[in-house]
Write a structure and sequence with these properties.
This protein is of the alpha/beta class. The chain contains 11 helices and 6 strands. It folds into 2 domains: 5-128, Rossmann fold, CATH 3.40.50.2300; 133-222, Orthogonal Bundle (Arc Repressor Mutant, subunit A). Helix 2 runs parallel beside helix 3 (65-75), helix 3 (65-75) packs parallel to helix 4 (90-99) and helix 8 (168-178) crosses helix 10 (194-207).
Length: 228
């Protein structure tokens, strides 16, 4: 876990930013180095402060969080974007990941989950709120099914798609992720360590020649698998 994390808070509601600052600074090791109330201020503030994590709202006046994330991904790739929004919405979810965010969670999530998400994205991991992660897995399944159909057509009905690439255990992990299970819950249910669960997730991405949830989403969008 990172000992010291520099954070910029982006939200158009002053009271939300004040509450987040008070809570996060009380956790130890989390330092708020800047605030912004819209996307324009966010881009400027992040460039000036060079934070590790940007906690980004989506719907704001002027430049919204989507456009700010797109710009910051190019201007400040070292700053990891964590979307924190009221929107439990599939379209916003995929668009933020495609824009370059490495985390997505709603404001209805537990406070300790926000802290865990900040630590995760600060270390370069993808953090998706478990109740929303099933959207990504559902579209992965759709991609795999279409690949299976295409491969079967090409080789006379012999399946050569993703179901042959992924191992039985990897498919089990996918099933549990789709059910909204966290890594500790998957670990307990399958009787394997959290590190082993993480390795299975990593292998799934490697076998698809992808390196993050965001890349998987971008690929699916390009292929027309995800409809926005």
């Amino acid at each position: 876990m990172v000992d010291s994390i520099r954070i910029v808070l982006v939200d158009d509601h002053d009271i939300v930013r004040t509450g987040l600052r008070s809570f996060l600074e009380a956790q130890g090791g989390l330092f708020i180095v800047g605030e912004a109330r819209d996307g324009f201020q966010a881009v400027q503030t992040v460039q000036e402060t060079c934070p590790d994590v940007v906690v980004m709202d989506i719907t704001m006046p002027g430049m919204d969080g989507l456009e700010a994330t797109r710009q910051l991904t190019g201007l400040c790739p070292h700053a990891h974007i964590l979307a924190l929004t009221v929107h439990e919405d599939k379209q916003y979810f995929f668009e933020m990941l495609a824009a370059g965010a490495t985390g997505y969670m709603t404001k209805q999530a537990a406070a300790d989950e926000l802290v865990a998400a900040i630590h995760a994205v600060a270390q370069g991991y993808v953090y998706l709120q478990p109740t929303l992660a099933r959207w990504l897995v559902d579209d992965y399944r759709r991609l795999a099914e279409l690949s299976h159909v295409a491969d079967a057509d090409q080789v006379g009905g012999v399946p050569t798609g993703e179901e042959k690439v992924l191992s039985k255990r990897e498919r089990q992990v996918l099933e549990l992720v789709a059910d909204g299970k966290t890594t500790p819950q998957i670990s307990e249910q399958l009787g394997i360590s959290p590190k082993t669960v993480a390795r299975h997730r990593e292998r799934i991405m490697n076998k698809l020649n992808l390196h993050s949830a965001a890349e998987l989403v971008k690929f699916a969008i390009r292929q027309g698998i995800i409809e926005l």
